[in-house]
Design goal:
Elements lengths: L29 H5 L5 H4 L8 H5 L4 E4 L5 H12 L4 E5 L10 E4 L9 H23 L3 E5 L3 H6 L7 E5 L2 H9 L1 H12 L3 E2 L4 H11 L17 H7 L2 H8 L6 E5 L9 H12 L5 E6 L7 H20 L4 E4 L5 H9 L3 E4 L8 H9 L2 E5 L2 H9 L4 E3 L3 H9 L7 H14 L2 H16 L12
Parallel strand pairs: 1-2, 1-4, 2-3, 4-5, 5-6, 7-8, 7-10, 8-9, 10-11, 11-12
Helix pairs in contact: 7-8, 12-13, 12-17, 15-18
Amino acid sequence: MTRRDDAGPTTIGEPVDRRAPGRPATFAPPAKASTRRPPPEVRRSNGAAEGADAASELPSVALLGAANSVHTRKWAVTLAERGHRVVVTSWVAADPIPGVDLRVAPYANSARRGSAGAVVRLVLTGWWMRREVRRTRPDVLHVHSLGMAGLFSLLIPRVGTRVVTPWGSELRVAARSKLRGSVVRAALRRADVVLPTSAAVTKELVDRYQVPVERTDTISWGVDDRFGEIRDDVRPDDVRRRHGIPLDATVLFSARSAGPVYRTEEILTAYDRAVAHRPDLHLVLLVGQRPAETSAAQAQRRCLDAAARLATARPGRVTVVDRTLTPVEVFTLMCASDVMISVPRWDQRSSTVLEAALAGCRLLLADLPAYHEMVSDGLTAEIVGEPLTDRLSEKLLTVRRSDAREQRQNRQFIETSESWSRQVGAVQRWYLALTGRQVATAVDTPA
């Protein structure tokens, strides 16, 4: 069962078992982890002074991830606000992160071309990361994703305890590629604990990759605690005017990054079929994060070209948001939308989907285990089957905004079980359990 942190405030280092009465646990809570004897290099806390002073400090954290990722940046800022010393080690150039030590590989903007140049850049970046992590010697190395971050993590020496958060789409790709599958296996073997966001992915890690169940914990990332108040202050008409969206339209929001993983071209085709019969429909396409890898960037470009062709064919019925939006801006756009579409090839417990539910959107979701899991837990949504283009276009012919009862139900679900601050606290408890720290600091509010 996904961890649902609806209990009251707790204290870091005070393990909490949040299983629903009568339901079996499919995760190992930090209470169990804290009884395990950490390996010697973890107990030494990377050379930190032994004794009460060292044990009372929050562990330092190095996040290995793409610094331009909204998720990476959000985790870094939140952990820094809670008192951790945070270093983000990235192979992608990005703007500074407030309160965080951002270190970007000097080869991030390299002009090397071709496959040989890419290999050279990859090797140079890997060795640079190895040196930087040795230099910073974090108590916790948190590997965010098993794609590029997982690959680079294989070159990093054992200087502290290691946490891995896999992203859903990577496991689907790894299942079809021997090379990527071997990278994922190797990265998972090096992890002290793996923290997926859905029970379906946890099961895959245990069944396919033989990760011991006691080294996993299913922790949803939840929804930013501020968004409940922001929702009440949003003026939908003003937001629509700002983006050039008709005030009387039924707005469909494709809020995931444009690209093949999120099946953008199939969404465009389904919408084109439906809008021919429903001229009130208006599609908003979020470009989202620009991929650093050349092949992914080219794939996204093809999707955006298809969107541009559709916008020309259906004038005034398609809005492509091609600038980077802050998380708050994305949420306000959700509040001004009627329907949110999320139909990726694979996913976990998506914060974007949960945010759209809080915003009041009707949810059209792919037929994926993680999405069925959310519906089973209490989320109101419609599942769209395969073949996707046909089933989605049929849904769009009749879809309407959620009614008041459905919106209340989803808002209650988010507010009682999907608080971001409590989910961060659950991750902090793992950091403390694995490093042997005992810190009496409330986990539900920043330190």
